[in-house]
Design goal:
six-stranded mixed β-sheet, globular, GTP-binding, G_SEPTIN_dom
Length: 336
């Protein structure tokens, strides 16, 4: 080996120098990503609104699945006496190696009866029950495999036929606003012209502010986000409440097969942004804000429920201690 070759072999390479300055915690996001993908994700979505507004069709369109194969449709006479029920459908979806356990909570019978007084009570009871179950599991001995059945989002369908919010709409959203993320939707938007949709949206926004209804608020963008994401976020905020159309039918438009509805006057395309807000709703619900919906459920709505439970338990414990002290005092006086 020559002197020059020995010198070259002892000269540290730039890769070695970089390796010495590299600790390795920059790979933590990759580790979290691998662990999360392996574990899978879960999301619980509630749909509420009176029958015939396309709730099931929209859910099937959003997740490209059929969750209501065996559904029984009631006639008008049966709906009059029907009470609000809670039905749950769970399906496992996989896309590009990412697994999602999707739970759809439906509320058949809501708003269909002649007397709709407190028809939202079974819905609030169900949400509270899921919080209570999670609190019980979280406080138990085995906390390793806790199932999260808490409702992360509620899509509330508003009929397109009226001129704003009905009393039942106001009471329902106010009853749920502190328990779940409420996202109002204008159903069957193909019943309205673009100008009518614009006016109805403005009216609904005014009434939501007027009655102090707290719906899901989009978080502000970080300053380091790119302009494309900021523009998308602005468009989502300006589009609320989303005017949506659902369809499981594939039709041909402009030489392409698309999901839509065929009418004598033309075709309404579900995924055409100029026809409805379906793409914006899907973007918000699945692609950009699903994790934020889960975070608010856990950090805000569930924490409020948990704090209330702990306060109630603390008060009960104090009362028991006071009663015990009183009994001990009475026994001591008797002995004397």
């Amino acid at each position: 080996m020559t002197t020059s070759s020995r010198y070259k072999s002892r000269t540290p390479r730039s890769d070695d120098a970089e390796e010495k300055d590299y600790v390795g915690f920059a790979t933590l996001p990759n580790q979290v990503h691998r662990k999360s993908v392996k574990k899978g994700f879960d999301f619980t979505l509630m749909v509420a609104g009176e029958s015939g507004l396309g709730k099931s069709t929209l859910v099937n369109s959003l997740f490209l699945t059929d969750l209501h194969k065996d559904r029984k449709l009631l006639n008008a006479e049966e709906r009059i006496s029907q009470t609000v029920e809670i039905t749950k459908h769970t399906v496992d979806i996989e896309e590009k190696g990412v697994k999602l356990k999707l739970t759809i909570v439906d509320t058949p019978g809501f708003g269909d009866a002649v007397n709709n007084t407190e028809c939202w009570q079974p819905v609030t009871d169900y949400i509270n029950l899921q919080f209570e179950q999670y609190f019980r599991d979280e406080s138990g001995l085995n906390r390793k495999n806790i199932q999260d059945n808490r409702v992360h989002c509620c899509l509330y369908f508003i009929p397109p036929f009226g001129h704003g919010l009905r009393p039942v709409d106001i009471e329902f959203m106010k009853a749920l606003q502190d328990k779940v993320n409420v996202v109002p939707l204008i159903a069957k938007a193909d019943c309205l012209t673009p100008l009518e949709i614009k006016k109805l949206k403005e009216r609904l926004r005014e009434e939501i502010d007027k009655y102090g209804i707290k719906i899901y608020q989009f978080p502000d963008c970080d300053s380091d986000e790119d302009e494309e994401f900021k523009q998308q976020d602005r468009e989502l905020k300006e589009s609320t409440p989303f005017a949506v159309i659902g369809s499981n039918t594939v039709v041909e438009a402009r030489g392409q097969r698309v999901r839509g509805r065929l009418y004598p006057w033309g075709i309404v395309e579900v995924e055409n942004p100029s026809h409805c807000d379906f793409v914006k709703l899907r973007t918000m619900l699945i692609r950009t804000h699903m994790h934020d919906l889960k975070d608010i459920t856990s950090d805000c709505h569930y924490e409020n429920f948990r704090a209330l439970c702990i306060q109630t338990m603390t008060r009960c414990l104090r009362r028991m201690q006071q009663m015990l002290q009183k009994m001990q005092q009475q026994m001591h006086e008797q002995d004397l």
